[in-house]
Protein backbone atom coordinates (compact mmCIF):
# COMPACT_ATOMS: atom_id res chain seq x y z
CA UNK A 1 0.00 0.00 0.00
CA UNK A 2 2.57 2.51 1.15
CA UNK A 3 4.86 1.74 -1.75
CA UNK A 4 2.07 2.15 -4.28
CA UNK A 5 0.99 5.51 -2.87
CA UNK A 6 4.57 6.67 -2.82
CA UNK A 7 5.00 5.86 -6.48
CA UNK A 8 1.79 7.60 -7.46
CA UNK A 9 2.81 10.77 -5.66
CA UNK A 10 6.25 10.60 -7.25
CA UNK A 11 4.77 10.30 -10.71
CA UNK A 12 2.44 13.22 -10.20
CA UNK A 13 5.33 15.37 -9.00
CA UNK A 14 7.53 14.40 -11.95
CA UNK A 15 4.66 15.00 -14.36
CA UNK A 16 4.00 18.52 -13.18
CA UNK A 17 7.71 19.38 -13.12
CA UNK A 18 7.87 18.36 -16.78
CA UNK A 19 4.74 20.42 -17.34
CA UNK A 20 6.45 23.48 -15.87
CA UNK A 21 9.28 23.10 -18.38
CA UNK A 22 6.85 23.53 -21.26
CA UNK A 23 5.20 26.54 -19.68
CA UNK A 24 2.29 25.01 -17.79
CA UNK A 25 1.99 26.33 -14.25
CA UNK A 26 4.26 24.40 -11.88
CA UNK A 27 2.64 25.63 -8.70
CA UNK A 28 1.09 22.23 -7.89
CA UNK A 29 4.46 20.50 -7.93
CA UNK A 30 5.83 22.51 -4.99
CA UNK A 31 2.82 21.52 -2.91
CA UNK A 32 3.28 17.93 -3.95
CA UNK A 33 6.93 17.86 -2.97
CA UNK A 34 6.32 19.56 0.37
CA UNK A 35 3.40 17.32 1.20
CA UNK A 36 5.25 14.22 0.17
CA UNK A 37 8.23 15.18 2.31
CA UNK A 38 5.97 15.87 5.25
CA UNK A 39 4.13 12.56 4.90
CA UNK A 40 7.36 10.58 4.64
CA UNK A 41 8.85 12.43 7.62
CA UNK A 42 5.77 11.83 9.74
CA UNK A 43 5.79 8.14 8.92
CA UNK A 44 9.51 7.86 9.64
CA UNK A 45 9.21 9.82 12.87
CA UNK A 46 6.66 7.46 14.37
CA UNK A 47 8.93 4.51 13.65
CA UNK A 48 11.89 6.34 15.16
CA UNK A 49 9.85 7.18 18.25
CA UNK A 50 8.79 3.57 18.68
CA UNK A 51 12.37 2.36 18.25
CA UNK A 52 13.57 4.99 20.74
CA UNK A 53 11.08 3.80 23.34
CA UNK A 54 12.16 0.24 22.80
CA UNK A 55 15.85 1.09 23.05
CA UNK A 56 15.24 3.16 26.17
CA UNK A 57 13.34 0.29 27.79
CA UNK A 58 16.13 -2.09 26.82
CA UNK A 59 19.06 0.01 28.04
CA UNK A 60 17.43 1.19 31.22
CA UNK A 61 15.48 -1.96 31.97
CA UNK A 62 17.86 -4.84 31.31
CA UNK A 63 19.99 -4.12 34.40
CA UNK A 64 16.73 -4.39 36.37
CA UNK A 65 16.52 -8.10 35.58
CA UNK A 66 19.28 -8.72 38.10
CA UNK A 67 19.73 -6.28 40.99
CA UNK A 68 19.79 -6.70 44.74
CA UNK A 69 16.91 -8.73 46.14
CA UNK A 70 15.50 -5.85 48.17
CA UNK A 71 14.39 -4.01 45.04
CA UNK A 72 11.87 -6.62 43.99
CA UNK A 73 9.11 -5.45 46.35
CA UNK A 74 9.62 -8.41 48.62
CA UNK A 75 9.29 -10.96 45.81
CA UNK A 76 12.90 -12.12 45.85
CA UNK A 77 13.65 -12.06 42.12
CA UNK A 78 12.60 -10.40 38.88
CA UNK A 79 10.49 -13.35 37.83
CA UNK A 80 8.95 -13.50 41.28
CA UNK A 81 7.84 -9.91 40.77
CA UNK A 82 6.91 -9.81 37.11
CA UNK A 83 4.92 -13.04 36.93
CA UNK A 84 2.26 -11.93 39.45
CA UNK A 85 2.19 -8.48 37.87
CA UNK A 86 1.74 -9.89 34.39
CA UNK A 87 -0.93 -12.24 35.66
CA UNK A 88 -2.80 -9.36 37.25
CA UNK A 89 -2.47 -7.26 34.11
CA UNK A 90 -4.04 -9.98 32.01
CA UNK A 91 -6.60 -10.81 34.66
CA UNK A 92 -7.85 -7.23 34.98
CA UNK A 93 -7.96 -6.83 31.19
CA UNK A 94 -9.83 -10.09 30.67
CA UNK A 95 -12.35 -9.21 33.39
CA UNK A 96 -12.93 -5.86 31.71
CA UNK A 97 -13.41 -7.58 28.35
CA UNK A 98 -15.91 -10.05 29.79
CA UNK A 99 -17.98 -7.12 31.00
CA UNK A 100 -17.45 -4.80 28.02
CA UNK A 101 -17.76 -7.08 24.99
CA UNK A 102 -21.42 -8.11 25.35
CA UNK A 103 -22.42 -4.50 26.03
CA UNK A 104 -20.35 -3.17 23.14
CA UNK A 105 -21.73 -5.66 20.65
CA UNK A 106 -25.27 -5.01 21.82
CA UNK A 107 -24.85 -1.24 21.63
CA UNK A 108 -23.21 -1.48 18.21
CA UNK A 109 -26.07 -3.64 16.94
CA UNK A 110 -28.60 -1.23 18.38
CA UNK A 111 -26.94 1.63 16.52
CA UNK A 112 -26.44 -0.21 13.23
CA UNK A 113 -29.56 -2.38 12.98
CA UNK A 114 -32.20 -1.63 15.55
CA UNK A 115 -32.49 2.06 16.32
CA UNK A 116 -34.07 4.51 13.90
CA UNK A 117 -31.53 6.92 12.46
CA UNK A 118 -32.47 9.90 14.55
CA UNK A 119 -31.76 7.92 17.73
CA UNK A 120 -28.80 5.95 16.41
CA UNK A 121 -26.73 8.99 15.48
CA UNK A 122 -26.84 10.70 18.91
CA UNK A 123 -26.23 7.41 20.71
CA UNK A 124 -23.17 6.74 18.57
CA UNK A 125 -21.96 10.26 19.26
CA UNK A 126 -22.33 9.92 23.02
CA UNK A 127 -20.49 6.59 23.04
CA UNK A 128 -17.64 8.19 21.11
CA UNK A 129 -17.58 11.01 23.64
CA UNK A 130 -16.99 8.46 26.36
CA UNK A 131 -13.59 7.82 24.77
CA UNK A 132 -12.68 11.46 25.34
CA UNK A 133 -13.03 11.29 29.13
CA UNK A 134 -9.49 11.32 30.64
CA UNK A 135 -8.60 8.13 32.45
CA UNK A 136 -7.78 10.10 35.62
CA UNK A 137 -11.38 11.19 35.71
CA UNK A 138 -12.54 7.61 35.32
CA UNK A 139 -10.16 6.64 38.13
CA UNK A 140 -11.52 9.33 40.43
CA UNK A 141 -15.07 8.37 39.64
CA UNK A 142 -14.33 4.71 40.31
CA UNK A 143 -12.55 5.34 43.61
CA UNK A 144 -14.83 8.02 45.01
CA UNK A 145 -18.25 7.27 43.56
CA UNK A 146 -18.59 3.82 42.05
CA UNK A 147 -16.52 1.94 44.64
CA UNK A 148 -18.54 2.99 47.73
CA UNK A 149 -21.73 2.53 45.73
CA UNK A 150 -20.74 -1.07 44.98
CA UNK A 151 -19.96 -2.03 48.61
CA UNK A 152 -23.35 -3.76 49.08
CA UNK A 153 -22.78 -5.64 45.83
CA UNK A 154 -19.44 -6.83 47.20
CA UNK A 155 -21.18 -8.12 50.30
CA UNK A 156 -23.83 -9.86 48.27
CA UNK A 157 -21.27 -11.55 46.02
CA UNK A 158 -19.24 -12.76 49.01
CA UNK A 159 -22.34 -14.12 50.65
CA UNK A 160 -24.03 -15.79 47.72
CA UNK A 161 -21.35 -16.64 45.19
CA UNK A 162 -18.53 -17.62 47.54
CA UNK A 163 -18.35 -21.02 45.86
CA UNK A 164 -16.65 -19.22 42.96
CA UNK A 165 -12.95 -18.51 43.67
CA UNK A 166 -13.48 -14.90 42.55
CA UNK A 167 -15.72 -14.11 45.49
CA UNK A 168 -14.47 -16.49 48.17
CA UNK A 169 -13.23 -14.36 51.08
CA UNK A 170 -13.70 -11.27 53.20
CA UNK A 171 -15.18 -8.49 51.02
CA UNK A 172 -13.68 -5.01 51.00
CA UNK A 173 -15.44 -2.38 53.09
CA UNK A 174 -14.80 0.52 50.72
CA UNK A 175 -15.27 -1.04 47.30
CA UNK A 176 -11.76 -0.17 46.14
CA UNK A 177 -11.22 -3.55 44.58
CA UNK A 178 -10.29 -5.16 41.31
CA UNK A 179 -13.98 -5.82 40.81
CA UNK A 180 -14.74 -2.10 40.76
CA UNK A 181 -11.63 -1.41 38.71
CA UNK A 182 -12.64 -3.98 36.11
CA UNK A 183 -16.04 -2.31 35.72
CA UNK A 184 -14.41 1.09 35.25
CA UNK A 185 -11.92 -0.43 32.83
CA UNK A 186 -14.84 -1.95 30.93
CA UNK A 187 -16.46 1.48 30.59
CA UNK A 188 -13.17 2.83 29.29
CA UNK A 189 -12.69 0.22 26.57
CA UNK A 190 -16.36 0.15 25.60
CA UNK A 191 -16.21 3.07 23.12
CA UNK A 192 -13.44 1.64 20.97
CA UNK A 193 -15.01 -1.81 20.77
CA UNK A 194 -18.44 -0.33 20.11
CA UNK A 195 -17.35 2.03 17.37
CA UNK A 196 -15.36 -0.59 15.46
CA UNK A 197 -18.16 -3.15 15.75
CA UNK A 198 -20.68 -0.56 14.63
CA UNK A 199 -18.60 0.22 11.53
CA UNK A 200 -18.30 -3.41 10.47
CA UNK A 201 -21.92 -4.22 11.27
CA UNK A 202 -23.06 -1.31 9.13
CA UNK A 203 -21.01 -2.59 6.20
CA UNK A 204 -22.83 -5.92 6.02
CA UNK A 205 -23.89 -6.32 2.39
CA UNK A 206 -27.57 -5.60 1.95
CA UNK A 207 -27.79 -8.66 -0.28
CA UNK A 208 -26.92 -10.99 2.62
CA UNK A 209 -29.33 -9.29 4.97
CA UNK A 210 -32.12 -9.57 2.43
CA UNK A 211 -31.29 -13.23 1.84
CA UNK A 212 -32.00 -13.91 5.50
CA UNK A 213 -35.05 -11.66 5.73
CA UNK A 214 -36.64 -13.13 2.62
CA UNK A 215 -36.41 -16.58 4.21
CA UNK A 216 -38.53 -15.31 7.07
CA UNK A 217 -35.76 -14.46 9.51
CA UNK A 218 -36.57 -12.22 12.44
CA UNK A 219 -34.27 -9.27 13.06
CA UNK A 220 -32.12 -11.24 15.47
CA UNK A 221 -31.94 -14.25 13.15
CA UNK A 222 -30.90 -11.93 10.34
CA UNK A 223 -28.13 -10.61 12.57
CA UNK A 224 -26.97 -14.15 13.31
CA UNK A 225 -27.15 -15.34 9.70
CA UNK A 226 -25.82 -12.31 7.87
CA UNK A 227 -24.26 -9.71 10.16
CA UNK A 228 -22.15 -11.76 12.58
CA UNK A 229 -20.55 -14.06 10.00
CA UNK A 230 -19.64 -11.05 7.90
CA UNK A 231 -18.34 -9.05 10.86
CA UNK A 232 -16.45 -11.82 12.64
CA UNK A 233 -12.90 -10.74 11.90
CA UNK A 234 -13.75 -7.10 12.51
CA UNK A 235 -15.19 -8.01 15.89
CA UNK A 236 -12.03 -9.91 16.78
CA UNK A 237 -9.88 -6.92 15.97
CA UNK A 238 -12.20 -4.65 17.95
CA UNK A 239 -11.90 -6.91 20.98
CA UNK A 240 -8.13 -7.08 20.59
CA UNK A 241 -7.84 -3.32 20.43
CA UNK A 242 -9.95 -3.11 23.57
CA UNK A 243 -7.68 -5.68 25.19
CA UNK A 244 -4.64 -3.65 24.18
CA UNK A 245 -6.07 -0.56 25.79
CA UNK A 246 -7.06 -2.45 28.94
CA UNK A 247 -3.59 -3.98 29.29
CA UNK A 248 -1.86 -0.63 29.24
CA UNK A 249 -4.38 1.26 31.33
CA UNK A 250 -2.76 2.70 34.43
CA UNK A 251 -4.70 5.30 36.28
CA UNK A 252 -8.02 3.57 36.77
CA UNK A 253 -6.47 0.57 38.44
CA UNK A 254 -3.78 2.49 40.32
CA UNK A 255 -6.39 4.83 41.78
CA UNK A 256 -9.11 2.33 42.52
CA UNK A 257 -7.74 -1.02 43.63
CA UNK A 258 -5.71 -1.27 46.83
CA UNK A 259 -2.75 -3.28 45.56
CA UNK A 260 -0.60 -6.21 46.45
CA UNK A 261 1.85 -8.16 44.33
CA UNK A 262 0.03 -11.44 44.39
CA UNK A 263 -1.42 -14.12 42.13
CA UNK A 264 -5.01 -14.44 43.20
CA UNK A 265 -8.39 -14.80 41.54
CA UNK A 266 -10.13 -13.09 44.44
CA UNK A 267 -11.47 -9.77 43.14
CA UNK A 268 -13.51 -8.22 45.95
CA UNK A 269 -11.00 -8.08 48.84
CA UNK A 270 -8.79 -5.35 50.27
CA UNK A 271 -5.64 -6.72 48.65
CA UNK A 272 -5.93 -6.92 44.92
CA UNK A 273 -3.50 -8.33 42.38
CA UNK A 274 -1.54 -5.39 41.01
CA UNK A 275 -0.99 -4.75 37.32
CA UNK A 276 2.32 -3.76 35.74
CA UNK A 277 1.17 -0.29 34.75
CA UNK A 278 -0.28 0.48 38.19
CA UNK A 279 2.82 -0.91 39.87
CA UNK A 280 5.03 1.44 37.87
CA UNK A 281 2.76 4.42 38.46
CA UNK A 282 2.69 3.89 42.18
CA UNK A 283 6.37 3.07 42.58
CA UNK A 284 8.49 5.23 40.33
CA UNK A 285 8.45 8.47 42.34
CA UNK A 286 10.22 7.21 45.43
CA UNK A 287 12.61 4.85 43.75
CA UNK A 288 16.36 4.39 43.86
CA UNK A 289 18.15 3.89 40.52
CA UNK A 290 18.11 0.12 40.99
CA UNK A 291 14.44 0.05 41.87
CA UNK A 292 13.76 2.30 38.87
CA UNK A 293 15.47 -0.09 36.50
CA UNK A 294 13.36 -2.90 37.93
CA UNK A 295 10.24 -0.87 37.17
CA UNK A 296 11.47 -0.13 33.67
CA UNK A 297 12.18 -3.81 33.16
CA UNK A 298 8.59 -4.62 34.06
CA UNK A 299 7.59 -1.94 31.56
CA UNK A 300 9.67 -3.72 28.94
CA UNK A 301 7.78 -6.93 29.68
CA UNK A 302 4.46 -5.10 29.32
CA UNK A 303 5.62 -3.57 26.04
CA UNK A 304 6.63 -6.95 24.66
CA UNK A 305 3.39 -8.49 25.85
CA UNK A 306 1.07 -5.89 24.31
CA UNK A 307 3.13 -6.12 21.14
CA UNK A 308 2.47 -9.87 21.07
CA UNK A 309 -1.25 -9.36 21.69
CA UNK A 310 -1.47 -6.88 18.82
CA UNK A 311 0.49 -9.15 16.50
CA UNK A 312 -1.84 -11.98 17.38
CA UNK A 313 -4.87 -9.78 16.68
CA UNK A 314 -3.51 -8.79 13.29
CA UNK A 315 -2.78 -12.38 12.47
CA UNK A 316 -6.33 -13.43 13.37
CA UNK A 317 -7.83 -10.59 11.33
CA UNK A 318 -5.63 -11.34 8.33
CA UNK A 319 -6.55 -15.00 8.49
CA UNK A 320 -10.24 -14.07 8.63
CA UNK A 321 -9.88 -11.91 5.51
CA UNK A 322 -7.99 -14.50 3.50
CA UNK A 323 -10.94 -16.91 3.64
CA UNK B 1 -52.15 -19.98 -4.10
CA UNK B 2 -53.75 -17.12 -5.90
CA UNK B 3 -52.72 -13.57 -5.23
CA UNK B 4 -55.16 -10.75 -5.47
CA UNK B 5 -54.15 -7.11 -5.52
CA UNK B 6 -56.62 -4.29 -5.30
CA UNK B 7 -55.80 -0.59 -5.70
CA UNK B 8 -52.30 -1.00 -4.29
CA UNK B 9 -50.12 2.11 -4.13
CA UNK B 10 -46.60 2.07 -2.76
CA UNK B 11 -44.90 4.99 -1.04
CA UNK B 12 -41.39 5.75 0.09
CA UNK B 13 -42.12 8.43 2.65
CA UNK B 14 -43.81 11.18 0.65
CA UNK B 15 -42.82 9.78 -2.70
CA UNK B 16 -45.41 7.68 -4.46
CA UNK B 17 -43.49 5.00 -6.34
CA UNK B 18 -46.33 2.89 -7.73
CA UNK B 19 -49.94 3.82 -8.21
CA UNK B 20 -53.20 1.89 -8.19
CA UNK B 21 -52.23 -1.62 -9.17
CA UNK B 22 -55.06 -4.10 -9.45
CA UNK B 23 -54.44 -7.63 -10.65
CA UNK B 24 -55.21 -11.21 -9.92
CA UNK B 25 -52.45 -13.78 -10.17
CA UNK B 26 -53.46 -17.36 -10.88
CA UNK B 27 -52.17 -20.18 -8.70
CA UNK B 28 -49.51 -22.55 -10.07
CA UNK B 29 -48.71 -20.35 -13.01
CA UNK B 30 -45.87 -18.06 -13.98
CA UNK B 31 -46.61 -14.36 -14.03
CA UNK B 32 -44.02 -11.98 -15.46
CA UNK B 33 -43.68 -8.24 -14.87
CA UNK B 34 -41.99 -6.25 -17.61
CA UNK B 35 -41.40 -2.58 -18.13
CA UNK B 36 -38.68 0.07 -18.42
CA UNK B 37 -36.24 0.74 -15.56
CA UNK B 38 -37.71 2.66 -12.65
CA UNK B 39 -41.29 1.76 -13.46
CA UNK B 40 -41.79 0.14 -10.07
CA UNK B 41 -42.07 -3.50 -11.07
CA UNK B 42 -39.42 -4.68 -8.59
CA UNK B 43 -40.86 -2.43 -5.92
CA UNK B 44 -44.26 -3.93 -6.52
CA UNK B 45 -42.86 -7.46 -6.44
CA UNK B 46 -41.35 -6.75 -3.02
CA UNK B 47 -44.70 -5.74 -1.60
CA UNK B 48 -45.92 -9.29 -2.24
CA UNK B 49 -43.72 -10.55 0.62
CA UNK B 50 -43.40 -7.24 2.47
CA UNK B 51 -39.68 -7.00 1.68
CA UNK B 52 -40.11 -3.33 0.78
CA UNK B 53 -40.46 -2.71 4.52
CA UNK B 54 -36.71 -3.21 4.84
CA UNK B 55 -36.46 0.38 3.63
CA UNK B 56 -37.52 2.77 6.40
CA UNK B 57 -40.56 4.83 5.53
CA UNK B 58 -41.90 2.49 2.85
CA UNK B 59 -45.57 1.59 3.07
CA UNK B 60 -48.46 0.27 1.01
CA UNK B 61 -52.01 1.42 0.58
CA UNK B 62 -54.68 -0.83 -0.83
CA UNK B 63 -55.24 -4.49 -0.36
CA UNK B 64 -53.01 -7.46 -1.20
CA UNK B 65 -54.14 -10.92 -0.26
CA UNK B 66 -52.61 -14.32 -0.80
CA UNK B 67 -54.93 -17.33 -0.73
CA UNK B 68 -57.65 -15.07 0.57
CA UNK B 69 -55.63 -13.74 3.51
CA UNK B 70 -54.83 -10.04 3.66
CA UNK B 71 -51.06 -9.96 4.13
CA UNK B 72 -51.24 -6.39 5.43
CA UNK B 73 -54.03 -7.15 7.88
CA UNK B 74 -53.52 -6.07 11.47
CA UNK B 75 -51.78 -8.78 13.45
CA UNK B 76 -50.09 -10.24 10.39
CA UNK B 77 -46.37 -10.72 11.05
CA UNK B 78 -44.19 -9.85 8.02
CA UNK B 79 -41.83 -12.61 9.11
CA UNK B 80 -44.64 -15.15 8.75
CA UNK B 81 -45.55 -13.75 5.32
CA UNK B 82 -41.97 -14.17 4.12
CA UNK B 83 -41.92 -17.77 5.25
CA UNK B 84 -44.82 -18.46 2.91
CA UNK B 85 -43.59 -16.30 0.07
CA UNK B 86 -40.04 -17.16 -0.97
CA UNK B 87 -37.81 -14.80 -2.90
CA UNK B 88 -34.88 -15.06 -5.29
CA UNK B 89 -32.81 -11.97 -5.94
CA UNK B 90 -31.12 -10.31 -8.87
CA UNK B 91 -27.68 -11.41 -7.76
CA UNK B 92 -27.13 -14.82 -6.21
CA UNK B 93 -26.74 -14.40 -2.46
CA UNK B 94 -25.88 -17.66 -0.72
CA UNK B 95 -24.66 -17.14 2.85
CA UNK B 96 -20.91 -16.84 2.35
CA UNK B 97 -19.80 -18.65 5.48
CA UNK B 98 -22.16 -21.59 5.07
CA UNK B 99 -21.70 -24.85 3.19
CA UNK B 100 -24.02 -25.82 0.35
CA UNK B 101 -25.85 -28.13 2.74
CA UNK B 102 -26.32 -25.46 5.41
CA UNK B 103 -27.37 -22.89 2.84
CA UNK B 104 -30.24 -25.09 1.69
CA UNK B 105 -31.33 -25.67 5.28
CA UNK B 106 -30.96 -22.02 6.37
CA UNK B 107 -34.68 -21.28 6.15
CA UNK B 108 -35.69 -24.52 7.83
CA UNK B 109 -33.41 -23.83 10.75
CA UNK B 110 -34.92 -20.45 11.46
CA UNK B 111 -37.15 -20.16 14.48
CA UNK B 112 -34.67 -22.45 16.28
CA UNK B 113 -36.38 -25.48 14.85
CA UNK B 114 -34.55 -28.73 15.53
CA UNK B 115 -34.39 -31.04 12.55
CA UNK B 116 -33.28 -34.66 12.70
CA UNK B 117 -30.28 -35.52 10.55
CA UNK B 118 -32.20 -37.95 8.36
CA UNK B 119 -34.98 -35.46 7.82
CA UNK B 120 -32.47 -32.69 7.08
CA UNK B 121 -30.71 -34.89 4.51
CA UNK B 122 -34.03 -35.52 2.83
CA UNK B 123 -34.98 -31.83 2.73
CA UNK B 124 -31.59 -30.94 1.24
CA UNK B 125 -31.77 -33.62 -1.43
CA UNK B 126 -35.36 -32.79 -2.38
CA UNK B 127 -34.67 -29.07 -2.58
CA UNK B 128 -31.48 -29.50 -4.60
CA UNK B 129 -33.20 -31.95 -6.95
CA UNK B 130 -36.07 -29.49 -7.21
CA UNK B 131 -33.58 -26.80 -8.23
CA UNK B 132 -31.82 -29.10 -10.74
CA UNK B 133 -28.60 -28.82 -8.78
CA UNK B 134 -28.37 -32.17 -6.99
CA UNK B 135 -26.26 -33.99 -9.57
CA UNK B 136 -23.74 -31.17 -9.73
CA UNK B 137 -23.20 -30.79 -5.99
CA UNK B 138 -24.10 -34.08 -4.33
CA UNK B 139 -20.43 -34.96 -3.79
CA UNK B 140 -19.50 -31.65 -2.21
CA UNK B 141 -22.38 -30.67 0.02
CA UNK B 142 -19.95 -29.68 2.76
CA UNK B 143 -18.11 -27.17 0.57
CA UNK B 144 -18.90 -23.44 0.76
CA UNK B 145 -21.79 -22.25 -1.40
CA UNK B 146 -19.64 -19.40 -2.69
CA UNK B 147 -17.41 -21.90 -4.51
CA UNK B 148 -20.10 -22.58 -7.12
CA UNK B 149 -20.51 -20.77 -10.43
CA UNK B 150 -22.94 -17.85 -10.62
CA UNK B 151 -25.68 -19.94 -12.23
CA UNK B 152 -25.20 -22.73 -9.70
CA UNK B 153 -25.30 -20.20 -6.86
CA UNK B 154 -28.59 -18.87 -8.18
CA UNK B 155 -30.03 -22.37 -8.32
CA UNK B 156 -28.72 -22.89 -4.78
CA UNK B 157 -30.70 -19.82 -3.77
CA UNK B 158 -33.77 -21.27 -5.45
CA UNK B 159 -33.18 -24.54 -3.56
CA UNK B 160 -32.91 -22.55 -0.34
CA UNK B 161 -36.18 -20.78 -1.12
CA UNK B 162 -38.13 -23.96 -1.96
CA UNK B 163 -36.68 -25.97 0.95
CA UNK B 164 -39.18 -24.29 3.27
CA UNK B 165 -42.02 -25.19 0.85
CA UNK B 166 -43.42 -21.72 0.31
CA UNK B 167 -46.70 -21.14 -1.45
CA UNK B 168 -45.39 -18.44 -3.73
CA UNK B 169 -41.96 -17.87 -5.25
CA UNK B 170 -40.94 -14.34 -6.20
CA UNK B 171 -38.03 -13.81 -8.55
CA UNK B 172 -36.50 -10.39 -9.01
CA UNK B 173 -34.62 -10.49 -12.34
CA UNK B 174 -33.09 -13.83 -11.38
CA UNK B 175 -31.04 -14.17 -14.57
CA UNK B 176 -29.75 -10.66 -15.06
CA UNK B 177 -26.34 -11.54 -13.60
CA UNK B 178 -26.03 -14.86 -15.44
CA UNK B 179 -24.66 -16.07 -18.77
CA UNK B 180 -27.03 -17.47 -21.44
CA UNK B 181 -26.45 -21.13 -20.56
CA UNK B 182 -27.14 -20.57 -16.87
CA UNK B 183 -30.14 -18.46 -17.86
CA UNK B 184 -31.53 -21.33 -19.92
CA UNK B 185 -31.07 -23.66 -16.94
CA UNK B 186 -33.02 -21.31 -14.68
CA UNK B 187 -35.78 -20.90 -17.28
CA UNK B 188 -36.14 -24.67 -17.57
CA UNK B 189 -36.33 -24.79 -13.82
CA UNK B 190 -39.09 -22.18 -13.72
CA UNK B 191 -41.13 -24.36 -16.08
CA UNK B 192 -40.77 -27.32 -13.74
CA UNK B 193 -41.40 -25.35 -10.56
CA UNK B 194 -44.71 -23.96 -11.69
CA UNK B 195 -46.41 -27.30 -11.18
CA UNK B 196 -45.84 -26.79 -7.43
CA UNK B 197 -45.58 -23.06 -6.87
CA UNK B 198 -47.16 -19.80 -7.89
CA UNK B 199 -44.27 -17.94 -9.48
CA UNK B 200 -43.98 -14.21 -10.05
CA UNK B 201 -40.94 -13.04 -11.96
CA UNK B 202 -39.64 -9.58 -12.79
CA UNK B 203 -37.55 -9.47 -15.93
CA UNK B 204 -35.88 -6.92 -18.11
CA UNK B 205 -35.80 -9.37 -20.92
CA UNK B 206 -38.98 -9.51 -22.96
CA UNK B 207 -38.03 -12.73 -24.70
CA UNK B 208 -37.65 -14.29 -21.29
CA UNK B 209 -41.11 -13.12 -20.26
CA UNK B 210 -42.48 -14.56 -23.48
CA UNK B 211 -40.68 -17.88 -22.93
CA UNK B 212 -41.47 -18.57 -19.30
CA UNK B 213 -44.69 -16.86 -18.35
CA UNK B 214 -48.37 -17.60 -18.68
CA UNK B 215 -49.47 -14.09 -17.93
CA UNK B 216 -47.64 -10.79 -18.19
CA UNK B 217 -48.06 -7.43 -16.55
CA UNK B 218 -46.61 -4.37 -18.26
CA UNK B 219 -45.59 -1.49 -15.96
CA UNK B 220 -44.79 1.96 -17.20
CA UNK B 221 -44.44 5.49 -15.95
CA UNK B 222 -45.76 8.63 -17.59
CA UNK B 223 -42.63 10.64 -16.96
CA UNK B 224 -39.57 10.61 -14.71
CA UNK B 225 -40.59 11.39 -11.13
CA UNK B 226 -44.15 10.20 -11.74
CA UNK B 227 -45.37 7.02 -10.06
CA UNK B 228 -45.25 3.80 -12.02
CA UNK B 229 -48.52 2.08 -12.91
CA UNK B 230 -49.77 -1.13 -14.40
CA UNK B 231 -50.62 -0.51 -18.06
CA UNK B 232 -51.84 -3.91 -19.05
CA UNK B 233 -52.22 -7.34 -17.52
CA UNK B 234 -53.09 -10.15 -19.90
CA UNK B 235 -52.18 -13.67 -20.97
CA UNK B 236 -48.61 -13.61 -22.29
CA UNK B 237 -49.64 -14.84 -25.72
CA UNK B 238 -52.04 -12.01 -26.19
CA UNK B 239 -49.55 -9.45 -24.82
CA UNK B 240 -46.96 -10.38 -27.37
CA UNK B 241 -49.28 -10.76 -30.35
CA UNK B 242 -52.23 -8.50 -29.87
CA UNK B 243 -51.93 -6.22 -26.84
CA UNK B 244 -54.86 -4.08 -25.74
CA UNK B 245 -52.83 -0.98 -25.14
CA UNK B 246 -50.80 0.87 -27.80
CA UNK B 247 -48.07 1.65 -25.19
CA UNK B 248 -47.61 -2.05 -24.59
CA UNK B 249 -47.18 -2.65 -28.27
CA UNK B 250 -44.70 0.19 -28.55
CA UNK B 251 -42.63 -1.21 -25.68
CA UNK B 252 -42.74 -4.79 -26.87
CA UNK B 253 -41.78 -3.91 -30.39
CA UNK B 254 -38.78 -2.07 -28.99
CA UNK B 255 -39.84 1.51 -29.72
CA UNK B 256 -38.89 2.63 -26.19
CA UNK B 257 -37.53 1.32 -22.89
Outline the structure in words.
By secondary structure, chain A is mainly alpha-helical. Chain A has helices at residues 2-21, 27-61, 78-114, 117-130, 135-149, 151-160, 178-202, 206-214, 219-248, 251-256, 276-283, 289-322, and strands at 259-260, 272-273. Chain A is globular and about 70 Å long. The mean pLDDT of chain B is 91. The two termini of chain B are 32 Å apart. Chain B has 257 residues and is α/β, with parallel strands linked by helices. Chain B has helices spanning 41-47, 78-84, 100-109, 117-130, 134-137, 150-163, 180-193, 206-212, 236-241, 246-252, and strands at residues 3-12, 15-25, 30-34, 58-66, 69-70, 85-88, 168-172, 198-202, 215-221, 228-235. The chains are: A mainly alpha (323), B alpha/beta (257).
Low-confidence stretches of chain B: none
Largest sheet of chain A: 2 strands, parallel
Overall geometry of chain A comes to: globular
- In whole angstroms, the N-to-C terminal distance of chain A is 20 Å
| Class by SSE composition of chain B | alpha/beta
What is the count of helical runs of chain B?
10
Q: What ranges of chain A have pLDDT less than 50 throughout 5 or more consecutive residues?
A: 1-20
Ends apart, CA distance between termini of chain B: 32 Å
Order of helices and strands of chain A: HHHHHHHHHHEEHH
Amino acid sequence: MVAVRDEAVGEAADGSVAGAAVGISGRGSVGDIVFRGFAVAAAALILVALAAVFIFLGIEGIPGFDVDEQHYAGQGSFLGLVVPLLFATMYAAVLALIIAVPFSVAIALFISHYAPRRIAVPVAYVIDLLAAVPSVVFGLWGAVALGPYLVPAHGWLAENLAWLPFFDGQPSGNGRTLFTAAIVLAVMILPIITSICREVFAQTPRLHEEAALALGATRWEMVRYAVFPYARSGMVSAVMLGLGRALGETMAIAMIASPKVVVSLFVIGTQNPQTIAAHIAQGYKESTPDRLSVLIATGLVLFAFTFLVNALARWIVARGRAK
Amino acid sequence: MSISVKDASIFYGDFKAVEDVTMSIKPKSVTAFIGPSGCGKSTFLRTLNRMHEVIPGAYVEGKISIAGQDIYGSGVDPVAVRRKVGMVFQRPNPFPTMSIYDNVLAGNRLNSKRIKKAEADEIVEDALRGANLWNEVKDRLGKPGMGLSGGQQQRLCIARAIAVQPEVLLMDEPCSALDPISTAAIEDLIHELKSDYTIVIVTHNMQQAARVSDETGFFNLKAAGQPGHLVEFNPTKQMFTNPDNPDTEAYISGRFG
